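G., the chain you wanted modeled:
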Amino acid sequence: MISQHPSERFAAPNTILTGVPLKKRIGAQLVRLIAESFGTVDSGFDQKTFVQEATQGPEALELKDRARHIAHALARQLPNDVDAAVETLTQRFTAEFSIRPFIVEHERIHSTG
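Predicted structure as tokens:
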């Protein structure tokens, strides 16, 4: 069985199309998925602390400030060694990460037939 990639559990809902601000999607669910995603490639990544810091106080922030708030919490959990931090980031934010749901679906379709 192929496990579900964290990115597959965060899909843009129809509410974005009906006038709910995009900033509302930058919240706890996304933070937990980011934590899980980083935790799969870096055993030293403190998911619990990241989630606590990233979800503390962003409700009052606008879109860019929410993203900045999460980025700062993420930076505090990444390795101090720049090369190690870059390695961790590139394992999460690459083209493969972006197309992962399609890869999983392709594997699912071709493994059953």
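Helices lie at 28-41, 47-54, 63-77, 82-92, 95-111.

Shout if anything looks off.
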